Amino acid sequence: MKQLLNMEDVQVRIKTHTQEITALELEHLTLHEGELVALVGETGSGKSMTASSIMQLFPTQKAYIGSGRIVFEGTDLLTCSRKQLDHIRGKEITMIFQDPMSSLNPVFRIGDPIIDVIRTHTGVSTKEARERAIQALKFVGLPDPARMLNRYPHELSGGQRQRVMIAMAMVCEPKLLIADEPTTALDVTIQSQILYLIDKLKKEKGTSVLFITHNLGVVAKMADRIAVMYAGRIVETGRTQAVFRSPRHPYTRMLLDAIPRISEERDRLPVISGRVLSPAEVGGGCRFANRCPRVTDQCRQAVPPLATVGDWHEAACFEPLEEAR
Ligand SMILES: Nc1ncnc2c1ncn2[C@@H]1O[C@H](COP(=O)(O)OP(=O)(O)OP(=O)(O)O)[C@@H](O)[C@H]1O
Ligand SMILES: [Mg+2]
């Protein structure tokens, strides 16, 4: 499989009033062509920061990339020219967000930004761009796409707006789509339709997808590989099936145990005790040490690096779980 995106030693730092914190410390993450990788982890674990660092668009001006390499098809996005970067993000890499209302401008008709994006990146005529926009709205299953182009965001439902966002993100046939919690604001039936759509994009257009979610269950069927994040670091990566069948990091094990299964009768769901340390509280050791049942002295003193534990399988743990048979 050909590599599309390769992130190495990416550190994102945030300046607060009193101090500077490291919000993300990512050793490595690779995406291949046509692959769907799910980035999972609880709130504050650094999923959105990972996406922001690829796009170099942060939610706060206080955040910046301290170091690292983010190589997309041979170009390091952190050192390339602004012109190159602007071409790549928008054309080759696009993103959809959790809340489409905040990304669609309420004063423009739905079609305006889509036609704009097509014209900017392909240079086709307005007429041709309009035709492509209609095709994109059709692909995402919006009814009466030609008329839809002339409607305003507030005239659409949440699910329809999310479809417009996907249409906008896919219209120039990007090589990589980053979807940051694209379904959390939607009800369950619409959620599964949006997931189906992203899967269709991957299968029919060969688009690689970085799919961000806090819900492991959502990605079980869709993702080729999973990267689990905890407190700003990736703690485990592997093929989806392998990670589900045999998680090697104690945190992944706990995350999986927390997914309710209908077939099981349980009085209570297991709870992961303790809480995530904030970046400011993190000492020299493993960030999961304060919640880990397998903790040793070594874990409190040094940060375990992401190490190979199996075929395509890595875990950042000094005491990884045995491989399940
Ligand atoms: N606007 C901000 N100002 C200060 N710190 C921030 C800001 N956004 C994020 N952080 C810090 O960066 C860390 C990673 O945040 P990030 O937004 O990537 O988490 P996430 O995994 O996307 O969580 P969620 O599931 O809630 O979206 C957080 O723990 C927080 O300390
Ligand atoms: Mg987030």
Automatic annotation (TrEMBL):
Q: Spell out the Gene3D superfamilies in the cross-references.
A: P-loop containing nucleotide triphosphate hydrolases (3.40.50.300)
Matching entries from SUPFAM superfamilies are given as: P-loop containing nucleoside triphosphate hydrolases
Q: What is one Pfam family matched by this protein?
A: ABC_tran
UniProt KW keywords: ATP-binding, Cell membrane, Membrane, Nucleotide-binding, Transport
> Where is this protein found?
Cell membrane
What is one GO cellular-component annotation here? plasma membrane
- GO molecular function per UniProt: ATP binding; ATP hydrolysis activity
Check the record and name the CDD domains matching this protein.
ABC_NikE_OppD_transporters
Q: What is its main location?
A: membrane
- GO biological process: one example: peptide transport
- Record-annotated ABC transporter domain positions: 5-256
Q: What membrane topology does the UniProt entry give?
A: Peripheral membrane protein
Q: Does the keyword DNA repair apply?
A: no
Matches recorded under InterPro entries: AAA+_ATPase, ABC_Ni/Peptide_Import, ABC_transporter-like_ATP-bd, ABC_transporter-like_CS, Oligopep_ABC_C, P-loop_NTPase
Superkingdom of origin organism:
Bacteria
Q: Which NCBIfam families match?
A: oligo_HPY
Instruction: Please give the family membership noted in the entry.
Output: Belongs to the ABC transporter superfamily.
List the PANTHER family hit by this protein, alphabetically: DIPEPTIDE TRANSPORT ATP-BINDING PROTEIN DPPD, OLIGOPEPTIDE TRANSPORT ATP-BINDING PROTEIN APPD
- What name goes with this protein? ABC transporter ATP-binding protein
What is the organism of origin for this protein?
Brevibacillus fluminis
Q: What is the lineage of its organism?
A: Bacteria, Bacillati, Bacillota, Bacilli, Bacillales
